[in-house]
Amino acid sequence: MRTIIVRLLYLISRGSKSKFEMKLKRGMKAPDFSVNDQDGNMVSLKDFKGKKLALYFYPKDNTPTCTEQACNLRDNISLLKKKGIVVLGVSVDCERKHKNFEKKFSLPFPLLADTEHQLVNAYGVWGEKMLFGRKYMGIHRVTFLINEQGKVDHVIDKVNAQDHAGQIIETWSV
Known about the structure:
Helices cover about 30% and strands about 25% of the residues.
């Protein structure tokens, strides 16, 4: 029964409509940031200079599609690392919620707690969404592929949560 409910919520969320236009484009310098991860460690964009970074924004910890996406990245982290790609997840959830999410699903990458909306605003992923005819503000599921020089190589705004690692590798052609 739980599986049916989770699947139904997933299908409904995939069909939600939103009014959203990406402001950060390919070739632009990625906005700098400094925020805490799930362990309270300060993480900054400059920490990843010289590395390929998949910076993925997701709406909320422990929700069906966000969990599916995080677990796909977890299951493929060795392949991503082999390709030289570092993964960072971002939502507006607090450190404690991120820590619980990390522990529950054994996530091997940092989850940034953007409680002050520094990243979601700078990267332009916070905006109006609609579900069941109700408008609300939230995070749009978007991944930015940032190159070794700190520039946006690709923006994935049609995320495939079931195979996001494959989508990142294919998009980056590595």
